[in-house]
TrEMBL record:
Residues 56-65 have a biased composition (Pro residues). It comes from the Bacteria. Keywords: Hydrolase, Membrane, Protease, Transmembrane, Transmembrane helix. Residues 1-34, 46-65 are annotated as: Disordered. Residues 321-382 form the PDZ domain. It comes from Winogradskya consettensis. PROSITE patterns: PDZ (PS50106). This is PDZ domain-containing protein.
C-alpha cells in the first residue's frame, strides 16, 4: 500500500479467472474494489466545498516560496555597523596617536616618537612671546620680588626703582630657562621710578627696542613679569590711553611722577619693572603702577588699569645712569602748585607760583601767575600734569605750550633743561 508520493505503474498480471457467481450481493463489486486488489491504483479524493457555502479556507503558505527580505535587511544593518565601528576606531586611534594620548606604544611594541615642539609663526602671539621671554628676568631682592628685562648682551637690565628700594645693592635674577645669576645695583632715579642693575653674566639676549612715541590707543600689547612670584607670566591687552599723568608718594619716601601708557593687560604685584611690548615683541614701556580696589598693598590686584613708563623715557634715564651713575631730571624752570585742579574747568591748568630767572620758562616769556593749559598738545589739569609731562621729554627738547594770562590765551615754545642737581 502506498500514499502515492513515489507511485509507479505496476505491471498488470494476468487477470484471474473469476469464480462462478454464487449469487451473493456481497461479492457483486469485488472485482472493482481496489481494497480487494492490491495491484490496482488508489487515491484519496477530497471533495471541494460547494461555492458560496461556509467560510473561505485558510491560505496555505508554500514552504518552497522565497522568504521575506528581513534576513537581508538584518545582514545589511550588521555589515554597516561593523564598518562604522571599524572606521570610528581607526580614526580615534589616529587622533589619539597624533595628540599624544594613550600608553605611548604601538602594537608590536614599537615606541611612539616623542611629539615635536609646537611650531608657531614668528608674528603670532606665541612667536612674539618666545622671542621676548629670554630677555625677561625675575628680580629677587631681600624681602621682595619684581621683574626686569635685559637691554645689553653684557648684562645691563632695567627695572623699577621701587623694586630695588631698600636693597643693599646686591640681588639675584632668575631667567626664563630656570637658571640664576647674581646682580648688583648700578644706579636709580627715585622720582622717575627707574633703576639699572648689572647681571653677572654675558652673552645675554637683549630685548628689542621699540618707539613709545609711535604707539596709538588700541594697539595690542603684552605684559611680561612675575606677578605674585609666578615666573614667566604673560598677559595680553591693548593700549588704553596715552600720557596718563600720575603722582605716587609714600610716607617718608619719594614722590614719583608718571606720564604713563595705560593698558588693560593684567598686571599685578611682582610685574613691576617688567616689559610692556608691542605686537612685534619690541619693548615700549616699563610696567610700574596699578590701580586697585584693595585698601592695602597686599590686597591690591588687577582690575584692568595698569600703567607703564614710556620706554623712550626709561631708555634715556637708563643710559644716563649707565654713563654717569645718575639720571638727568628734565625741568621747565618754574615752581607750580600740585594740590589739584582748580574749582572750575575754565580755570584748569598748571599755575606758576614762581619763575626762575633765565630758566626755560622765563626765556619763553612766562611769568609768575601764568597758567599753562597745554604742553606738547596735551591738556593739563594741574601742576602734577605739568611735572609728569615735562619729565617725559629729554633735556634740550623744544616743546610748544599754550598758557593763559589773565583773560587772554597765548602760545609759545619752551626749551626744557636738565636739573642742576
Amino acid at each position: 500500500m502506498t500514499d502515492g508520493w513515489n507511485w509507479r505503474q505496476p505491471q498488470t498480471p494476468p487477470a484471474p479467472t473469476p469464480p462462478a457467481s454464487q449469487g451473493s450481493p456481497w461479492w457483486s463489486d469485488a472485482l472493482s474494489d481496489p481494497w480487494r486488489d492490491p495491484y490496482s491504483p488508489s487515491a484519496v479524493v477530497i471533495p471541494s466545498a460547494p461555492v458560496g457555502t461556509g467560510p473561505a479556507p485558510e491560505p496555505v503558505t508554500d514552504p518552497a516560496a522565497p522568504k521575506p527580505p528581513m534576513t537581508r535587511i538584518l545582514m545589511i544593518c550588521l555589515v554597516t555597523a561593523l564598518l562604522a565601528g571599524g572606521l570610528g576606531g581607526t580614526l580615534g586611534y589616529v587622533f589619539a596617536v597624533r595628540n599624544g594620548v594613550g600608553g605611548g606604544t604601538q602594537l608590536g611594541g614599537t615606541p611612539l616618537a616623542a611629539p615635536s615642539a609646537a611650531q608657531r609663526a614668528p608674528e603670532s602671539s606665541a612667536g612674539v612671546v618666545a622671542k621676548v621671554l629670554p630677555s625677561v628676568v625675575t628680580v629677587r631682592v631681600t624681602g621682595a620680588i619684581g621683574s626686569g628685562f635685559v637691554i645689553s648682551a653684557d648684562g645691563y637690565a632695567i627695572t623699577n626703582d621701587h623694586v630695588v628700594e631698600g636693597s643693599d645693592g646686591t640681588m639675584s635674577v632668575l631667567f626664563s630657562d630656570g637658571s640664576t645669576a647674581d646682580a648688583k645695583l648700578v644706579g636709580r632715579d627715585p622720582e622717575s621710578d627707574i633703576a639699572v642693575i648689572k647681571i653677572s653674566r654675558t652673552n645675554l639676549t637683549p630685548i628689542q627696542f621699540g618707539d613709545s612715541d609711535s604707539i596709538a590707543i588700541g594697539d595690542p600689547v603684552f605684559a611680561f613679569g612675575s606677578p605674585f612670584a609666578l615666573n614667566n607670566t604673560v598677559t595680553q591687552g591693548i593700549v588704553s590711553s596715552l600720557d596718563r599723568t600720575l603722582q605716587q608718594s609714600e610716607s617718608g619716601g619719594p614722590t614719583r611722577y608718571y606720564a604713563a601708557i595705560q593698558t588693560d593687560a593684567a598686571v599685578n604685584q611682582g610685574n613691576s619693572g617688567g616689559p610692556l611690548v608691542d605686537a612685534a615683541g619690541r619693548v615700549i614701556g616699563v610696567n610700574s603702577v596699578i590701580r586697585s580696589v584693595g585698601n592695602t598693598e597686599e590686597g591690591a590686584g588687577n582690575i584692568g588699569l595698569a600703567f607703564a613708563i614710556p620706554f623712550n623715557q626709561a631708555r634715556r634715564l637708563a643710559e644716563d645712569i649707565i654713563d654717569t651713575g645718575k639720571a638727568r631730571r628734565t625741568v621747565i624752570g618754574a615752581e607750580v602748585a600740585t594740590s589739584g585742579s582748580t574749582s572750575s574747568s575754565s580755570a584748569a591748568g598748571a599755575r606758576l607760583r614762581s619763575v626762575e630767572p633765565a630758566g626755560p620758562a622765563a626765556v619763553a616769556g612766562l611769568k609768575s601767575g601764568d597758567v599753562i593749559t597745554k604742553l606738547g598738545g596735551h591738556p593739563l589739569d594741574d601742576g602734577v600734569d605739568l611735572i609728569a609731562m615735562v619729565r617725559k621729554y629729554a633735556p634740550g627738547a623744544t616743546v610748544p605750550i599754550e598758557y593763559r594770562r589773565g583773560t587772554t590765551t597765548q602760545t609759545a615754545s619752551v626749551t626744557l633743561a636738565a636739573d642742576a642737581n
